Amino acid sequence: MSATMRDVARLAGVSVKTVSNVVNDFPHVKSATRDRVLAAIAELGYQMNFSARNLSRGTTGMIALAVPELSLPYFAELSDAVIAAAAERGYTVLVEQTGGVRERELEVLASERRRMTDGLIFSPIGLRPADAARLEVDYPIVLLGERALHSSVHHVAMANADGARAVAEHLLARGRRRIAVIGSFDERGPSAGSLRTRGFLDALDEAGVRHDPARTGEALRWSRTTGAAAMRQVLDRGVGFDAVFGLNDVLALGAMRVLHERGLRVPEDVAVAGFDDIEDGRFARPSLTTVQPGRAQIARTAVELLVERLAGGEPAAGPGGEERVAQFELLVRESTG
Fold this sequence. Notes:
Layout: H1 5-12, H2 16-23, H3 31-44, H4 50-57, E1 62-67, H5 73-88, E2 92-97, H6 102-110, E3 120-122, E4 141-144, E5 154-157, H7 160-173, E6 179-182, H8 192-206, E7 216-217, H9 224-237, E8 243-246, H10 249-261, E9 271-273, H11 279-283, E10 290-292, H12 295-312, E11 323-325, E12 329-331
Parallel strand pairs: 1-2, 1-3, 3-4, 4-5, 5-11, 6-7, 6-8, 8-9
Antiparallel strand pairs: 10-12
Helix pairs in contact: 1-2, 1-3, 2-3, 5-12, 7-8, 9-10
């Protein structure tokens, strides 16, 4: 039979209330008493009933994570990292998928399901600046992605522009000058695509290298399929190129497949690089050069910020919120030589 709090109290020679105070980390318990209770817990193998504790505190012990699409490896791996970071803090994660559709993202904010969770980590891509006021909710929330929505909500981002700049500088250092870009972005506001494109093109400009728009392959939805289609667009135009930058890894992997189909060698004829460092890229042949955007740091920081808000009983930060940007790393692999 499992040990109970009463068993712990009897072994430690204290009241059940004192045991409760220790396991709930109340500060007024004497050190000697706390040590006796902890020793009794260890000896008996007592495990706390988190459901009962949360009920007494008026919390659920669950946080929500809303992402655009779990079929995209980046968001699947990000979700895994958030779940691991939350588990370290004693929280379970309820994952929701929005498809990046504005209406579904707004529904996530206002859903009755929020009563089932204590807070929300949210990666919106469909919301617009005019929707910023909708983020002023009465529960803790942390945003992931680009600060297109100016609000008082905490925000964790990746260094999209700087990471893309590092890719351009790497390709230029390899002697590549005619670089194709696979992917597209929404020009109505800051986005991962717009920031990565801007950082990449700025690096080319500074190096005195002109980017020919004919070397841009359009891909509104970022996937292997659209990356392959975009690569075919560029190839069918007949413009020469010696490198390809996919705005994310799945675009780059789709492009690399088409290059092989057309008889072009990677990296001998065309160097290929991506962004996001998904697991598939490490096992591709050749392995994919990419930007590791600090996914684990993003997940850990988002959970920490949310838990801080929960501990303080505050639904949001002060004016402007707090913004943290994860550190990135350029991972050079076989696809760029």
